[in-house]
Amino acid sequence: MATRGFASTFDDVWFVDGARTPFVDYNGLFGALSPIDMGIKVARAALERAGVPAADVGSVITGSMAQASFDAYMLPRHIGLYAGVPIEVPAIQVARICGTGFELFRQAGDQIERGYCDVALCVGSESMTRNPIAAYTHRSGFKLGAPVAFKDFLWEALDDPAAEVSMIQTAENLAKKYGITREAVDEFAALSFARALDAQARGFHAGEIVPVTSERFELAGYQPRGIELPRKVERVDADNHARPTPLETLAKLKPVYAGGVQTAGNSSALVDGAAAAIVAGGTYVRDRTLKPLAKLRAAAAAGVPPEIMGIGPAPAIRVLLERAGLSLKDIGLIEINEAQGAQIVAVERELGLDRSKLNVNGGAIALGHPLAATGARLTLTLAREMKARGVRFGISSACVGGGQGMALLIENTEA
């Protein structure tokens, strides 16, 4: 596959620190929460963990794919303001579907190197539960007997009308292309659950999670916002989708499509959650003797046919490595979003990846995939594991609906 696409490298840009909420099952404990309020929560936590005053932030870059509240247009601005960022600092919303969380880092790196700011606050926040039941054709009213066009936005968004395929069907196409069996997909899914449970038991995931409680977010001169959890729920501090899921359990599930390999158990979990990162220039980091998680080295994106969108990480990673002057043997750890089991196995086979270096703390099959938050979560998880293992280079990546892939290269300069 040709390594076409775009890539940028960064000379002196740093991922200082980050935080995320727990990832909570669809229609669960976060079901009533606005992505704005989840975003404010993780933004405040990331700033605190990074040791960066909100007053030093010069740019707010956010992502959220769903129109999950009536004030959704205000999401980037309100996350910044209620996180304490000065009122003069602008905010922007970016979107690359499942690659949005990586795009936050890329745009932060570009802004810092072009001199727009010294510090960027990056936040991805997604309520899958609050995706609306929507209609786009009734502004002028309803005619007698005419079809009523209200549909489930979340369900409809899983289809790509250009290729006339669902996202699950794109994974089935990859299974056929790469000869991937149902057993191979279930084996990967069982490993994802096992690794996630092990990481949870070791307290690894807790190290990046900020516990969520009911609270108010005050902003002088403006209306308060806040988080209100369900009655009798005082605190949510752990991901709740991961559960013991052996291969024999997965093997009993019916495929989504007759004769196919994808099931509800070996596809990414539907969850709500948010993640934030603080990205800063080297001069700022050194002047304040901060201890960043990683250096942001490069970002890349590439296009692939929509009907096999899940292979997107492969060309994106190849472009990334070419631009950075590295090869896969230089990469000690890789995090790739597990959109579907067949999709991640196809990428693994296409690139010849070592599974012992891939998603070592579990992935989206076990933990979930809140669209705009995923890239930030993957990169935070990767940077923390690189520190723990003394690994120098790592890549985080994801496929993107419509036929894209995106990838980031980070470096642990202490390795």
Model description:
The chain is an alpha+beta fold and 415 residues long. The protein has a single domain, classed as 3-Layer(aba) Sandwich (Peroxisomal Thiolase, Chain A, domain 1), CATH 3.40.47.10. It is built from twelve helices and 16 strands. The strands form four sheets. Strands 1, 2, 3, 4, 5, 12, 13, 14, 15 and 16 form a ten-stranded mixed beta sheet that branches. A two-stranded antiparallel ribbon has the order 6-7. The chain has a two-stranded antiparallel sheet with strand order 8-9. A hairpin with a 4-residue loop joins strand 8 and strand 9. Helix 3 crosses helix 12 and helix 5 crosses helix 10. The longest helix has 20 residues. The relative contact order is 0.22.
Provide a brief overview of the structure.
By secondary structure, the protein is an alpha+beta fold.
Number of domains: 1
Q: How many helices?
A: 12
Derived structural class:
alpha+beta
What's the N-to-C terminus distance?
A: 32 Å
CATH architecture: 3-Layer(aba) Sandwich
Q: Any chance you could write out the topology, listing elements then pairs?
A:
Layout: E1 6-20, E2 24-25, H1 35-50, E3 59-63, H2 75-82, E4 91-93, H3 100-113, E5 119-126, E6 133-134, E7 151-152, H4 153-156, E8 159-160, E9 165-166, H5 167-178, H6 182-201, E10 215-217, E11 225-227, H7 247-251, E12 271-281, H8 282-287, E13 294-303, H9 313-324, E14 333-336, H10 341-351, H11 364-367, H12 371-389, E15 393-400, E16 404-411
Parallel strand pairs: 3-4, 3-5, 14-15
Antiparallel strand pairs: 1-12, 1-13, 2-12, 5-12, 6-7, 8-9, 10-11, 13-16, 15-16
Helix pairs in contact: 1-2, 3-12, 5-10
